Batch of 4 targets.
Target 1
Amino acid sequence: MTGIFGSIELAGIVYILCALISFGVAWMIKGIYCGIRMQKAKAVPVLAESTGKTS
Amino acid sequence: MPNFDILNLFQGIATMVYGDPTITIARIVLIALGIAFVYLGAKGTLEPLIMIPMGVGMASVNASVLYLSATATGTIFIDPMISDPAQLMDVLQIDFLQPIYTLTFSNGLIACLVFMGIGVITDIGYILIAPFSSMFIAIMAELGTILTFPIAVAMGLTYKEAASVAIIGGADGPMVLYTSLILAKDLFVPITIVAYLYLSLTYGGYPYLIKLCIPKRLRGIKMDLHDLPEITRGEKLTFAIITCTILCLLFPVAGPLFMSFFVGVIVKESEVTRLIEFIEGPVLYGSTFFLGLLLGVLCEANTIMNPKVFTLLILGMTALLISGLGGILGGYIMYFITRGKYNPVIGIAGVSCVPTTAKVAQKEVREVNKQAIILPFAMGPNISGVITSAILAGIYVTLLR
């Protein structure tokens, strides 16, 4: 890749790569967030069961 | 009695009188600019933390040019162009700021320290609340980083130089420092100076861009704070360590910057009070102060009279302008997607000058609607901007190194 057209092409590739990776990170963030929330939701009934307490 | 030239007593003046007229004019202009920076920094128009030490450094270094030998002039502040190890050892013992420059500036340490401080003052909870919209705005606000690259090539820069100057569009000082160090060492000094100069100007310039592009009616949109869920410390810690590891795995070249940012975040979320106080106080302010001072001292006429400086000035401004417009466009797209519930001013916060652009957005909204609080929503794109800037720097460095 050389010249102005090469740079436009490269800029396009860089932008697409950046967008894909950024959305990948966003997806990972959402995954972490949902994962932790789900673990918490599961943990509450188990805890209530083991202690015999209900809210 | 021997011949006595009174000017030899005052070498700063002598070097001006007998020196190259172009350099003399540049020195006078830079001294005036330095004084103006101190004034505007103290007044609050420009970012005082950087501009005050920078202005003092700029005025002093351009006044302090002396005869180092019968033919050569220079200063005893710093010599950024030295590369020979033997000469460097000599200079380290003479130029008083050379140790700080060589051991912290030219290897990127100071950028990492600033990043660590930014990590400590950043609450990443906001990005966990709305990761996709935050990332979308941040990507839109990187438009300047992308479009400036071919513009710079068209203006005669090489790909490596073009990428280094395009990174200014990410509005992340440490990232510019880092990229230009790796890709364009010859232009490292002017690019960094231009970048920090403009980053400081975003504080003064972006409010006008917001007013120009977003009508008052939309600037005053109130966002619902009740929608914000509470993010626990554990969630933030998990996010920080996993994201840091994955980003380092993807872009080892930007690893020091990722590590520095996330170590700050992790220290904050771990609530280690003494470390937090240390990083957000002495580390952040100490490194910002020396960064400003060094940037000022690097603005010596002989060093920055590079024929490419004018091109860099134009490109730096273009990059930040396009990024700002891109961010606002992202804000508008979110406004339409949410059917008018999203304040488009938040878009400007995608330009990742943490936390300046988020604060600018809040200030502009408050001017129109006193009850509107958008800062928590603006911090998401703001932090995402740091991540996208680091990703872009990593891609450019990996592809062009």
Target 2
Amino acid sequence: MAKFGNKEKKTVGAISTASLPDVVFMILFFFMISSTMREVELQIELSGSDLPQATEIKKLEKKSLVSYIYVGKPKPAFARMYGTEPRIQLNSSFADLADIYEYIMAERQQRDEAEVPFMTTSLKVHQDTKMGIVTDIKQELRKASALKINYSARKRI
Amino acid sequence: MAKRETPEINSGSMADIAFLLLIFFLVTSTMDVDTGIARQLPPIPEKNAITDVEINERNVFIVLINAQDRLLVNGKPMDVDDLRESAKEFIKSDPNNPELPVVTPTKIAGINNLVNVSEGVISLQNDRGTTYGRYIEVQNELVAAYNELRNEAAFQYFGKRTFDELNEDQQESVKKIYPQRISEAEPKNVGGKK
């Protein structure tokens, strides 16, 4: 019982938190370097695992020269207005096929003239989408002579 | 000059500020790197251009994908797993086999001997009802066939393991041996689905 009675206060010195900011800053810098800003709020269902898989993939270089076209089923919240068939999303709103030409032209105008030939269009398409809509998009891109495209895909493991 | 004592700044809240920034970046950013298969679309042909180009039948490798995602390669059904091998065989060609594309011995910069360059073109055609996933799978197999052959050529002629290890001139030479020719026909709507 003597053990319990021994109420001698052992004071452990307070742990120094002076280096805590350094640790947190280190984590912060890690995330800032390894991640990219989210470009748009997606209104269609398209998470990373919905993209098709491939082995012969290349990294998209020069993010500033890439325009994105998203295709997939509208999210449940938009299903009443836009139905459940796959739709195109440009920037952060739903669009029709005819809008693609305008979109490409607007994207071009934002860039330097010398950079225009290096512009790439990235197609982020849900893997269950039928090719009909994708083919139509490709035809529109040909009309806008945006010929460099990239079928977004994730690495097959 | 008298030494003025600067009061120590309290850095206790520094951690809080850093945490705030950290959480902000965690929420607004995504980790994934954008990857994908890079392709080049053909330009729209001019209105009065003559589009009938005669291509020898043996020079074309026709890949059809129907609305049920099944493959028809040169008139025969095929599994996707076998596509890469047969595409490689076609691209590589063989001067002694009349079934495979015509080859012409060509002088390639950086290689002493003449190299047999085939005239083969891969024609890919899909239905409007084909799923995108299958389409990418097939595209991937075809690109992989070319990449594997280019790696083989890199080893055979320049003694490097992969195409990527070559310098720019050598890469150009290898590209001339195996030019990537994947042609996509105008889509058809046979399956009846939109």
Target 3
Amino acid sequence: MSLEFRVTQRSLSQTALAGLQGSLAKLGDLQQQMTTGKLINRPSDSPTGTIQAMQFRADIRAQEQYSRNAQDGQGWLGIIDSTLGDMTTQVQRARDLTLQGISTGTTSSVQGRIALATEIDSIRQSLIGSANTTYLGRPVFGGTTAGALAYDPNANYLGDAGSINRTVGPGVSVQVDSSGPGTFGTGTGQLFTVLALVSNDLRNNPGALTADLAQLDTASATLQTQRSDVGARYNRIAQMKQIADNRILDLKAQLSDIEDIDLPKTITELQLQQTAYQAALSATAKVLQPSLMDFLK
Amino acid sequence: MDSSFGGLNTALSALYAQQRGLAVTGQNIANANTEGYSRQRVQMRAVGGPPVGAIYSVDNGVGGGVEVAAVTRLQDELLVSRSRTEHAQDSYLTGVKSTYAQVEQIFSEPSDTGLQAQLGELWSNLHDLANNPGDLATRSTVLQQAQVVVTGFNSAHANLAASWTVSRQVLDSRLTEVNTTADTVAQLNQAIRAAVNAGSPSNSLVDQRDAGIMRLSELTGATTINRNDGTVDVYLSGSILVGGDVARHLQATGATRLEDEGIVPVVVQWTDTLATASVAGGEVAAGMQALGQILPTQSASLDQIAVSLMTVVNTQHTAGYDLNGTAGVALFSGTGAADLAVAITDPHLVAASATPGGNLDGTNATALAALATVTGGPDVAYRQMIANLGVTAQSAGRRVSIQDGVKQQVDSALAAQAGVNLDEEMTNMLAYQRAYEAAARVMSVIDSSLDTLINHMGVG
């Protein structure tokens, strides 16, 4: 028997079948990509891509959380800022009243000074009320207290020394509250104590008012400093939020690049593969059909 | 001196031989698409005179016609043995690949619903807790999400264990198939030896036996040695599986669930000696690989990640203080992915605060949320595990596609060598047909010569 390479109908059909199956498998892969819209449907499709996709997803989730945290922080700092602005105006009014008390001095009538003192008292009560401003039920000047008030009606601090922070970036934590003692002072220098002193001196000791004014200015300056600090922190959080939001967009684009199919490309490939499959089918049908049997009678 | 009727006999032998040729051609065409059929050829031999001259020899020096020496099976043993090797390797690799595909399905990554996403949701909820430590609803959400993560680990483990159990059952049924196929091969060996001794044809028996041996190779990577009496011995890594008409049997012993594999590993052993059988390839080796390597390794990795999650979270959680102001207790309990559980049910007991006294500090919750990116933490370890899974599964897939190509080539060569070519059969058929016609013609010519001799000579 000669050993030249034989070709048989069966070897032809086996090869043709294997080719057709390979072609159909490729068609199936492309179809899965089209229907899921994903290039990577299991880790082995692209181990590197899988890890990047998982990493990007985790990053997106983290950045979304940072953005949420920042939004919450903006809520806190926004309410503190407007409260402090409001309070500054009232303290300014108290200063005007004190100056009025000094300028009229002992010469003015007691009734006039008592009227000033009454207004100071009401400003003080209003300020204590402002110092108890809450955000989502929590006093914003009370540290981490579980109670509802930062100051009692007698201006005693009820909060604690804790601070409230928001994580707004990887390892970036920003304080979003303002400590009551830090904002309004402590001891004899406390804003509310100073106002009580002013009220008392207006009534009983107008001579001490000049010294009181100095103390009021010191307390007011502390308030101002705190307000600008809050403003700075608000800006910082707003920036961090912007960064997080931009990063989310970037990451989503990158994730899509890795994971999602390029629609026009996939459709074109699908078409090509379909054409190739049909061509293979028709060629196979033509090649496998004839044998000598068709031509012998 | 030539016999008057000798020519008739020569023509008759030609008629017989050509008829046999046509019959074999018919058989070949009939089996053109039979899996494992080897084409057959009629080997004809001229009948010559006696090789040694004798006193009363009547040999005319021409010969006495034709005889069928044998109907041979055209098969290349080298190709057959190569085909068995490639088939064994292909079924081994395909088995390994399908196990990896199962594991990939169990973890279903990358997705928005896998374990990675569930962990991410837990860290997010802890951030929310840090933002709102006093809210019981937020605290409950943390505990519920922790339960979701725990369920994710539990069910991943359960799925791996179920996959293991199925593989174990498949191994048993494969070994049963090995045993019955070995029995069949032994019986065919016996039948073929008897046929060879009796000088009768055994081609179809040999084809059947080859199909059986091919199946044994696909199952176990078995190799063969041909014996002179027509039988074939089948070996598993040097140990005899089928020797002549005797077949040995295999069985699997050891663990029947994934949890026991580390203690009593599954082994394949001989039923007669109880010695461990070394199965080098095929589906059985792929099953052993899945049972002893792939699934236990994945399960151990998952356990490590579960323990890592439990350790880092509990360490941080016990460093904090709950809503009642007392020190935090462990959030997770368990020893691995199978029994990981959430240890607390009261939302007050989530330790969000870093300081005692029942305040609304969220520092510890922030610290817990930051565990998402801690080096060596569960997220990083999980991604690493999925990366390893992806790489090994991908390489298994590539090896299968390469091996498929090799197997395809060998099969094609085998089909080309031993398969039926219809054109060739048609040509042969024509040749036999014409030879038959010619022999019939010879007969009628001799007949008419004899007619002339007998009926027309010397008759008035």
Target 4
Amino acid sequence: MKDKEIDEILKRAAQAPHEVDPALLDRVSKSIGSSLGPVRPLPPAWVLVGGLALICAAVALAGAARAGFYGIQKLSVLERALIFPALGIFVWLGATAAAGEMIPGSRRRAAPGLLLGAGSLMLLVVFAVLFHDYRTDHFVAQGIVCLTVGLLHAIPAALASWFLVRRGFAVNPVAAGLVLGTLAGLAGVTMLELHCANFEAPHVMLWHTAVIPVSAAAGAVAGWAARFHRG
Amino acid sequence: MARYQQGDFTAATTLIHRLSPQLHRFFLVQFASRGDADDLLQETWLRIHEVRHTYRAGEPVLPWFYAIARHIRVDHYRKASRTAAREERLEQMPEVAAALPPGSGATPDLEALLAPLPESQREVIEMLKIAGMSLEEVARATSSSVGSVKQKAHRAYEKLRERLSGMGGVGEG
């Protein structure tokens, strides 16, 4: 049987009349009509994307300004030229994905999980290429501090991001939470790159990068809880 | 849609009457009973009304509607935790043979025709062939890529071909 024949069968099936109970439609019209009023559409996607990216940058810069720009001062020009553009690209992709998750029927360029995985891997590769000090002095103690600081900066970034996109409608709250968590985690990592002067490769690769998946997981859990709460 | 966003009741009613049959059919194709489909349709319109500000003028409208309808359906199944019940329903679904009574002119029953397909393939076929959406629109509605939609449609056609051919040319006259 050829595709055209299947098409024809489906076409015939689709042409069969399908009625919906008129009383149901009247009920729907009445219930909608009772609360019908003009609404302000969401701003264009680029406004949301730009706003989300700005929030990330602002939180990272504010955090580093308070704690000190020791990291960026110690980085070479090459390191700065690779790390910050990579973070910028990741933030932009994350912001685009987050805006898309809040608007039903948006074009999705990459699944949230793929974005998280590929983005984190890209950062790991950049760190692996740039940092070759493989000592592990105070690995856990310093690592926990950086992870905590990164996550503490992810929280305000997440809250501000949520405030910006709160009028959107997450078709999939878990995916939306995952993306917003990833974005918030990126604010935390950017702050660490500006602030932390510990360039031991294991430290940067594990503890700095870990902020992103931990924050993303927290976002996904928050999304799941929101869905559960919404019933 | 823009007029509906501006609070025009006539525009809202027109949309409801124009889109409800295909949304209702979308739910029926997903193994919902007629009663469930009625409930899901009503719930979908209420949700559409609640989030109508998220539609942006100039964007394709069908993916927006279907993304919300899909969300309502998924939520409905999740809420009800009806995995076991659905399995029972699957067993009760009519065979494809019932979808296509012998004779070339017969109008096949859509729900029965698509019954053997997995849920993800069924919704893609419904959107592409019944709602008449483009690949890009289906990808938007299902939050997936065009490639993934093509793959699902291809697999669905393989399954339909297998079943229909197995019936010895039913529908060919």
